[in-house]
Design brief:
Layout: E1 4-11, H1 14-29, E2 40-41, E3 48-57, H2 62-74, E4 79-89, E5 97-102, H3 106-122, E6 135-140, H4 146-158, E7 163-167, E8 169-176, E9 183-191
Antiparallel strand pairs: 1-3, 1-8, 2-6, 4-5, 4-7, 5-6, 8-9
Helix pairs in contact: 1-4, 2-3
Length: about 210
């Protein structure tokens, strides 16, 4: 299906993104054995917690999708989040994806993802019943030998770290590929809480 590759996510605030970038810099500074190819690190100027990947989206579906994002944001309140661990998918063998995980705020992000999903169904998207686990993807190793080594270094770098942030908005992003790691371009963004131009009773619920 043609169209722009879209996904819904919570963007990281600048201070939290800088802290995560420091972790990545520390891991990369250790270098790799001669001849070993490095993992593919994501761009650090667009770090985000993905809630729902939508994929190629025709232009005519973007307005209702954007409205779904705004409605889900209006039903939500800021979430205190902590990043305190790391891991890899899959857990055994050579990993394909390296990530840092969420401890504080995980249940609230689960509920947010479900809320986004319901609003997307109303906008015409199919329901996604796959289990959701909040995490922040940092690199893709695609089975490279370096994946296991870098995953271990990432775990060590995160062992004594806790990165705190407040998630306070939803963003509909476009993933633009070509010429290196994908760039994430905001299509629309909405702060949590009711919009002043919409009566509160329009929403099914407003979280405290």
């Amino acid at each position: 299906m043609p169209g722009r590759r879209l996904f819904v996510a919570v963007p990281l605030p600048e201070n939290a993104a800088s802290a995560v970038a420091s972790v990545v810099d520390e891991v990369r500074a250790a270098g790799l054995p001669e001849g070993m190819h490095d993992v593919r690190w994501v761009r650090l100027d667009g770090l985000h917690l993905t809630l729902r990947f939508l994929g190629p989206t025709p232009d005519e579906r973007i307005p209702p999708t954007s409205e779904a994002v705004h409605l889900a944001a209006a039903e939500s309140a800021p979430i205190r989040v902590s990043i305190e661990e790391s891991g890899a998918f899959p857990q055994r063998g050579r990993p394909r994806t390296l990530w840092v995980g969420i401890v504080s705020g995980a249940p609230e992000l689960d509920a947010l993802a479900a809320r986004v999903g319901e609003r997307l169904v109303e906008a015409g998207w199919p329901r996604d019943d796959r289990p959701f686990r909040a995490h922040l993807t940092l690199a893709r190793s695609d089975g490279l030998a370096a994946g296991t080594l870098v995953a271990g270094r990432l775990a060590n770098a995160m062992k004594e770290r806790r990165i705190d942030l407040v998630a306070d908005r939803l963003t509909l992003f476009e993933s633009v590929t070509g010429g290196g790691p994908a760039r994430y371009v905001p299509v629309t963004s909405a702060a949590f809480g009711p919009r002043p131009d919409v009566p509160p009773d329009v929403y099914h619920r407003v979280l405290p």
